[in-house]
Amino acid sequence: MNHLTQQEVDAFKVDGYLVLERYFDPEHNQRIKGDVDRMMENGISPANRLEIFLSYPELGLLTSDPGIVGRVSDLMGGSRFTHHHIHARWQAEGEPGQPWHHDYEQMPQSNRSHLMVHVFMYLDGLNGEVGDLLLLPGSHTQTMERTAPRIFGYADLPGSITISRLAPGSIVILHSAIMHARRPKPGGVSFRRYFVDTSYCQAGILWPGIDDIDTINRIALERGYDRDGRYAWLYDSSQFYNARQVWLELKEKNAGSLALVLGPRDKLH
Q: Where are the alpha helices (DSSP H) in 178-224?
């Protein structure tokens, strides 16, 4: 089944996440792990989306996995959406944590009118070693800067939950604005925390994108990640603006009242 129940959709709206255990079958799961292993052995940065799309087809195909796309479509209420990014790596003994934060892309952070979804994939599951996943259900309804919650480190927060046990091949679908963290844990001598994340942005606005988004999406289509054109709309670069360029421009203007800087003054009185 490639879709969510209405109960799951309603729960996501309230809590901001869904857990699907054993999503990947063992054979598919192993193929994905093989790509992650090769990527790590080759010293590829987890954030190097261009190299991932060029050289690691099992990872590239994850961006249009029919079951994931179908479920994200349910959460989007049938609206079209675009693929934003994919990252992949494994984490082992001594891995540092990731303090509380959220991953919703917006400059400046001002509203949550359109949905952005992350899918976290745990190919070997979680076993209480290396890093637990911390979530604060309901926090996706709040608007804040991405790094604002970092002051809380890895501490338990009122209402937060800890996910320390997941079966291999499990995924967690998150509203990108939900507060989450990776708490560092001992162990990992014989356990690798395989982790892949991919994300999707609802159509209707322009989202922050990276400099080479056009190249990445062209390669996705050339390599057949759109599955014979079925999901070509996932790789639509027109849904993004150059985030680095806009951020540099915003930094120059971001002083005092932005209303006076960005809008005609005669219309503000």
A: 213-222
- Which residue, among 159, 154, 148, has the nearest Cα to 132 in the 3D structure? 154
Within 13 Å of residue 56, how many CA atoms lie on the same side as its CB? 29
User: Which amino acid type is present at position 213?
Assistant: I
Tell me the pLDDT tens digit for each residue of 41-51. Answer: 999 998 899 99
8 A C-beta contact, residue 59 and residue 39:
yes
- In whole angstroms, give the CA distance from residue 205 to residue 154: 33
Ramachandran category for residue 190: left, alpha or beta (phi over 0 → left; psi -120 to 50 → alpha): alpha
Q: Widest CA span of the chain, in angstroms? A: 66
* CA–CA dist 221, 215 (Å, integer): 10
88, 196 in Cβ contact below 8 A? Answer: yes
Q: Which domains does the chain have, with CATH numbers?
A: 6-239 (2.60.120.620)
Calculate the alpha carbon distances from 71 to 66, 117, 138, 176 in Å.
Answer: 9, 11, 20, 15
Task: Report the interhelical angle of 6-15 vs 66-75 (nearest 10°).
Answer: 70
Q: What's the first-to-final CA gap in the chain, in angstroms?
A: 56
**φ and ψ at 20, to 5 degrees?**
-120, 105
Phi-psi region of 267 (alpha: psi -120 to 50; beta: other; left: phi over 0): alpha
In tens, the pLDDT along 154-191 reads: 999 999 999 999 999 999 999 999 999 999 999 999 99
Per-residue pLDDT averaged across 19-38, rounded? 98
How much is the CA Rg of the chain, to the nearest whole Å?
19
Distance CA 26, CA 179 (A): 30
Tokens standing for residue 206: 């322009």
Strand partners, 193: 91
